[in-house]
Amino acid sequence: MSVTISDSYTISDFIPERIIRPRRGLIGIDFKELWIYRELFWFLAWRDILVLYKQTAIGIAWAVFQPVVTMVVFTLIFGNLAKLPSNNASYAVMTFAALLPWQFFSNAITKSSNSLISSQNLITKVYFPRIILPASATISGAVDFMISFVVLIGIMVWCKAPFRLSMFLLPLFFLFAFFAAFGAGLWLGALNVKYRDVNYVVTFLVRLGMYISPVGFISSVIPQRWRFVYSLNPMVGVIDGFRWCILGEQFKPYWPGFWASFTMVLMILVTGICFFRSTEKNFADVI
Amino acid sequence: MSGPIIRVEGIGKKYRLGSTISYDTLRDHITGSFRSLCHIISGNKKSKRGREFLENQTLTDNCEFWALKDISLTVDQGEVIGILGRNGAGKSTLLKILSQITEPTEGEIRIKGRVASLLEVGTGFHPELTGRENIFLNGAILGMTRSEIKKKFDEIVDFAKLEKFIDTPVKRYSSGMYVRLAFSVAAHLEPEILLVDEVLSVGDVEFQKKCSGKMNDVAKEGKTVLYVSHNMGSIAQLCSKAILLDYGKMVRFDAAQEVINQYIKNTGTLAKTGAIKITDRMYTTRGKKIKFSQVTMRDSRGNVCNNFLYKEDFSVEIDFDIYDNFERGVIGIGIRTLNGSLVTIAHNQDNNNGNIEDIARGSYKIKANFNNILRPGIYSLNIKAYEHIINGETIDVSDLIQFEIANSPKEGELMPVKMRSGLVEFEVDWSLEELAASFSYI
Q: Where does B63-118 have alpha helices with state H?
């Protein structure tokens, strides 16, 4: 060791004492500890991204292909066949503006609800704040999001849609989507540790959510008196926000509904954190 | 003034056996709750289904057991402490609580300093990533910062002797290379307190020597080490003090050699018949469940016993239930001496030229005939189960049956066997040949 310590002092005199004891009641986030483990968070996200692109032969192509084909199908069915309104915007751009956050959300929620199960051997062997696992799983979808965003710009150029300054607000709504996915991921991930059939629930939720959320249509087609209730789905607020930023004023969100979505995200996030933190002490035992 | 580096006060850990097994799926939970609801609504207390359910409920409530109870101890800085005990005595649970992997049910622990646990090497290795990438990932998981790993990177690669393969995905590594890399990362941690769970039993002999050398260095640097092992030789060599656990209680905490002596004495009084039932214990590896319902030893005439004649062949039977498909599943039988040295380990797939098939869900009986080359003495039998894949984990059930090879020579034997020492008896083909006189008799 390079540090010489005189006989009367030992290392333990310089290091604060840590106390391990059973925790009870509501447990918040230990931000100091998370800061210490911040590198692990990036490492795990980096691993997920690296592995994803190493394993899939078509890699990036898949991240482009999936939303583009969905957009084409939605444009044909909802725009051309059902002739739903698009507020004079290009139906393709309008759909893609919604697919962008939706794809991120659905990937993130699937990955983060599986993140604990797929890291079983870590959980039973090493200590680190468990919340890092769903968090890094959620953020690793950001790469796909960036790729899709580039595709959106391409589509906008193709459709001759104007670029607006309000697009600089997109990071805010991305954060909104991130916290919605992260909150739900905390709930589903923690439940998945004990009940493995949560996976089926997630698959079902994601498939159903695509049609319940205003992905293929605009949220103003919902009757006015139901709009507030409809907006309790957090993704309604996120998608409306994205469309507003990308397509401009005629897509201005229905504000009471927007704040309802926002409140829902906060609620899911806060309860998710509490639920996760109070169940995580048993993860290593039941996983 | 310096107090102890670890102070453990009244630690206990309670597990509930039933709850994790009976409610594995949300569906079961919902149907279970629904049934009890129906039962309450109908008010029919005599209904068979309802009664069954209630009985199961009380069973689940009673199926709690304390993996650890009333453990109190203090460890001073620089002490190297061995932890001894039979399988299921609570050794690993103690390390898991100390490393914060699981939370104690009661009691309190005060720790000064960074704790690193080597409960199993290679944790978090990803087969698709290269050696270089895995060093960074594994280092971060074990609690190193990026700059720390960068600084030690060359040292780690050098210690593992993998310079040439560092940019190859670890899925192409041999299992020896894999373990070397994993241990090398772990060995370069610099915690104040190191928790070790038998990692030294991996790799080839040369590498093992290197590892125990590293452990010695760590201890000499004034680090505190808690070391779980079945190998009493290495505990005696490395540790100053030792803890003996039995059924979750601390039986003794004393000088290492004293504790080892007591452990050998204690195990001598356990499992003295040729068959053992371990019905209640469910073992899991990567979430897959296996239950060994019975292990039996038989002599050459097929009688259940644990007392064999010298050179008399014996067989081992294992009845087990597998609840999930074991990918490339392997069942192993090991024989150890009383002081913990492994005499041999045999795997049921040894003769299949590496073509290891999956073991599907179901109940099995496996039978192994041993041609007995053991010298007289007392040995203990342990079994293992694992999936032969990267990141597979081994289930190890130790000290199941203690058996003796009797000290009586077979008929027609010339030398009294008790005169011989050593563990095994090879069939040696001797020849004695007189050479032409090459020296003079003077």
A: 91-98
